[in-house]
Task: inverse folding
């Protein structure tokens, strides 16, 4: 599903001058949500979100990849941006992150610490003096912890 949505949405976003940061689909019956995160070197404003939302909405109406009703939300990733790809994890090496796993790794599912980088298909996070190599496929959700200093 995510791959098909990406193939439909990414060309629209790029064609309108932004980059697709990530897609999040939350199926909840009649209250399902499709969140599309966009980014740009110049930043993203409300007009960008509105313009891209209209275009994505038109494509999704024609292609109909999601069955049933849903709400489309288009926004910037924000300062606490969610990380979706290994490339994004590499890009934010040195930042503090929160990572939630689908199933426990070494007895825990939640990790919060310094993102050290990526090694093959594993994300390296340092918590105090310990380093953990977390398999990318086991990550349910990861996001940057903003530093407002």
Result:
């Amino acid at each position: 599903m995510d791959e098909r949505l990406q193939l439909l949405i990414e060309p629209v976003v790029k064609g309108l001058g932004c980059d697709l940061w990530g897609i999040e689909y939350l199926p909840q019956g009649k209250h399902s949500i499709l969140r599309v995160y966009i980014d740009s070197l110049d930043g993203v404003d409300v007009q960008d979100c509105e313009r891209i939302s209209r275009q994505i909405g038109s494509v999704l109406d024609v292609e109909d990849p999601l069955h049933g009703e849903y709400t489309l939300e288009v926004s910037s990733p924000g300062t606490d941006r969610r990380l979706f790809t290994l490339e994004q994890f590499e890009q934010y090496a040195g930042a503090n992150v929160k990572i939630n796993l689908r199933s426990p790794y070494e007895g825990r599912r939640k990790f919060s610490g310094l993102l050290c980088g990526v090694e093959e298909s594993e994300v390296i996070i340092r918590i105090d003096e310990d380093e953990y190599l977390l398999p990318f496929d086991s990550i349910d959700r990861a996001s940057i912890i903003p530093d407002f200093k």
